[in-house]
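Hi there,

I know you've been waiting on this one. I reran it after we fixed the sequence typo, so this is the corrected version. Both the input and the resulting structure follow.
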Amino acid sequence: MKLDNAHLADLPAGVARPAYDRSRVTPGIVHIGVGGFHRAHQAMYLDRLMNAGTALDWGIVGLGILPGDARMHEVLQASDGLYTLVVKHPDGSRDVRVIGSIVDHVHAPADPAAAVERLADPAIRIVSLTITEGGYNYDRVTGEFDLDDEGVQHDLAHPEAPRTVFGLVVAGLRLRRERGVPAFTVMSCDNIQGNGHVARSSFTAFARALDERHGTDLAAWMTEHVAFPSSMVDRITPATTDADRADVAERHGVDDAWPVVTEDFEQWALEDTFTAGRPPFEQAGVQVVADVEPYELMKLRLLNASHQALAYVGWLAGYRAVHDAVRDPLIARLLRRYMDEEGTPTLAPVPGVDLDAYKDRLIERFTNEHVADTVARLAAESSDRIPTWLMPVVRENLAAGRQVELSAAVVASWARYAEGVDEHGAPIRVVDRLAERLTAVAQRNRTEPTAFLADRTLFGDVVDDERFTAPYVATLTSLHEKGVRATLEALLTAPVGA
């Protein structure tokens, strides 16, 4: 059955569908970066509210800012914004629902002016973001916004035809100010500690540079009028495959060009700071709180950092599926020991959360074979992930005089993976915005064991601290000489601090 408004009533009986009249849904949110995670998470929460008879004025307009977003634009336009969400439980059961909260999609590269007009629309009160950890264009060590970025330079010179997320959002805010329309909230949903603070810093830094170039004062207005709430988001959502499309068609009878497959866990902690109102997210299960930091640190330093801990050793050990890797007792022990011994000591108590139970649940989630998450997905874009998720743990533990051996081993496994060849001589496809640079340096690992660590834009000054470099070099040497399994066995049987 074709998926669009005209065929909603004809969908197979086992597929849930919107219980609300979609013609009554009006836009209230522009979301930049519509992908699998957004559609399994924020869009799902809004659909849940709409099914309960509320939030019908908070429909989502998707906004794609990359040339590659053209495909998502085509798919959502053809389906009237509808898509199938398949939730897979560990026991093999599944919940299948068509989500209706996305009401439109705009592809900014095709029509920047239309994108800016959408952002300036008085009905839009929230602009939300899933633009990845690397999308905020700041130095991981200094925190400074990169004004030399090619896209940023273009937008500073041509603010009337923006290409970047910064140029688009600030252009929308500029129009709103000129027209006397209140500012919107900018709501980051990316896996960055203090993502609201990071978003505020990046967008206002761009506006400040624009002011200096064109003699305006938009940055000060934004500082006063635009809210940037922080949030913690969590739901494992692998990339959609052709097998997923075929499964949705054959098993559930829905012809969906881009369904979403996800796990049966969901969490969203959201700071209650908004410029112009918000949907009643708490009615959909969102934890709306005054302080997000305990929740976000828990997730970043336990779930996200553990994903990095398993990704590189998992690949080198021959695993391609996450559930297979975590079922290996050696890898499972590495994850739990990292979480207990190095991740948890950096965390404050998290209101309403039993951390031991949370860690048990993480291991259970990782072993859900029906989600079919891939090791390759976890090992991608490491230059954005390791500095954001793991290195803060390292710095805090070093400052407190605590152990960092397991974190050092994780970074060493990344350095080994980044060499681009596995233990059997087979090539590894390193997917990273810095892949060429990383691989060139990693290929010097055998002769210059700390060369990879010497990149201070990624690692800061840990290369100067023997408490980190000694276990790092020991693990890297062992990976070269003994291989990943023997290295893990030795690492996990050594006394703490050895």
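Quick highlight: The first strand starts at residue 27 and ends at 32.

Best,
R. S.
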